[in-house]
Design brief:
With 141 residues, this protein is α+β, with helices and mostly antiparallel strands. The protein has three helices and eight strands, in the order βαβββαβαβββ.
Length: 141
């Protein structure tokens, strides 16, 4: 049911400070910056061969990203898999004994529906399922 790695989430303290690294040092183009109120973050997306890098800046002190940065510092936060059947993926994971953070999808960046699996059940990797939406020009997602 998984279609591809959709994106890698990277926690950063400041998009204003982080975006120039990806643009100047790596030569990537920031496709879009978007605030996602449901997750208390502001995101910036870069396309690298059909897989996106999603920079995540907390917009509130109680944001999950703010907590992550306080505990672990900036860096890789999650891996997201695109799926055509997010509810089916959640059921499969739950049936396999995985602890779900979201029992049903919630709104995410780019108009996607997203749901996360708890890293204590996924060998330490925060895992996201995402479906639908659009990250930027040309319908990439």
């Amino acid at each position: 049911m998984l279609q591809k790695i959709d994106h890698l989430g990277i926690a950063v303290k400041s998009l204003a400070e982080a975006v120039p690294y990806y643009e100047k040092a790596l030569g990537l183009t920031c496709e879009k910056i978007e605030e996602v109120p449901s997750q208390k973050v502001k995101t910036a997306f870069f396309n690298v061969g059909g897989v996106h890098l999603e920079l995540l800046e907390p917009t509130a002190e109680d944001s999950p990203i703010a907590k992550f940065i306080a505990d672990r510092g900036e860096g890789i936060h999650h891996v997201a898999f695109a799926t055509g059947d997010i509810l089916g993926q959640l059921k499969q994971a739950k049936d396999a004994g995985v602890r779900l953070i979201h029992e049903t999808p919630i709104p995410g960046a780019g108009g996607k529906q997203v749901a996360f699996l708890h890293p204590k059940s996924t060998r330490g990797v925060l895992t996201e399922f995402c479906a639908g939406g659009d990250h930027g020009p040309g319908g990439d997602h």
